[in-house]
Amino acid sequence: MLSYQHGFHAGNQADVHKHTLLLGILSLIAKKARPITYIESHAGRGLYDLAGEQAQKTGEWRAGVGELYEQRGLATPLARYRDVVARWNRGEAILQYPGSPCVAGGALRKRDRLVLFEQHKAEFEALNTAMTNHYRHAEAIRGDGYDGMLDVFSEHDPRHRLIAMIDPSYELKEDFERAPAFAQRLVSLVPDALVMVWYPVLTTGETLAAQTGSFHSQILFQQHREGHRMIGSGMVIFGDTTENRRPLKVLDRALQAHFTA
User: pLDDT by residue (tens digit) across 62-88?
Assistant: First the structure.
C-alpha cells in the first residue's frame, strides 16, 4: 500500500487552489434543484490538525491558508473559502484544516450524497470519524478509489447529478496518465457528470494530459523548501462545463491574481 499522508501538506498553496475551486464549482452546481452525488477517489482524513506533528514538521500550511487567512480585500471566491476554514476554527488561530470532504460536505445540501473512498487504514479511520461526527449524508468507504468510483458511476441513481474528484497522491507516475484517462471513461458512462482531476506541477516535469478536459486551471508558486518538487497545482474538469463557463473563468482569474500578487 502507498504511504502518502496528506497531513504533512494540508492547507498548503495547492490546497488553497484546489479547495477554492472545489467550493466554487459545487456552489454553482448546488444552485440547481437536482440532487448531487459527490464522489472522491482519494479522500484522505477529511479534517487535519495543523497543530499536530505532521503539519508542524513541514509547515507548508503557513504559506498557503496561513498567509491567506491574514489578508484583507480578498476576491469573493477566496473570501468564501477563508470563511469555510474559519468555521472550523475559533478566533484568529487556525488549528484545524478542512480537507475536500469537509469543504464538499459544507457546500452540499442535506438531500445530496457524499461517497468518499480511502484505502490507507489510519486515514480511513480518521475520515470515517470526521464524517460521522459532522455529515450524516456522507458515506466513507475503505477501498480502492478507482474501482469504487467506477462502481458508483455504473450503478448511479439517474435523478442525481454526479460530481467527482480524482486526487491521487501521484506517488506512482502512472497516475498522470491513469487519472485523466479514467475521468474520460467515467464521463463516457454518465455524459452529464463532471469529473475533476487535481494534479501537482513538479520540477521533474511530469504533467497531466489536460488537453481533453473542458476546463483547466493551473497556478504556480515558489518551492516550499530546497529539494521540494512541487512548484504548482492544476485542476482539469472533464465533462460539459458550457453552462458554467463564465463563472469558472471568473473563479480562475481570481486564483491567478492571488498567486501572482
Answer: 999 999 988 989 999 999 999 999 999
Return the C-alpha torsion angle 145, 13, 114, 34, nearest 10. -120
Number of structural domains, the chain? 1
| In the chain, beta strands by DSSP E | 36-40, 47-49, 96-98, 113-118, 138-142, 161-166, 194-202, 215-220, 230-238
The answer to whether residue 65 sits within a structural domain is: no
pLDDT, position 26: 97
Distance, in Å, from the CA atom of 193 to the CA atom of 189, rounded to the nearest integer, reads 9
pTM value surpassing 0.85? yes
Given this model, what pLDDT does residue 56 score? 87
Distance of alpha carbon 192 from the chain centroid = 20
- Cell reading at 228: 521540494
In terms of residue numbers, what domain contains 197? Answer: 11-46+99-260
Answer whether residue 239 is part of any domain.
Answer: yes
Note the maximum CA span of the chain.
49
Containing H/E element for 62?
Answer: none
For residue 118, the domain's CATH number is 3.40.50.150
1 pLDDT tier (thresholds 50, 70, 90): very low
Q: How confident is the model at residue 124 (pLDDT cuts 50, 70, 90)?
A: very high
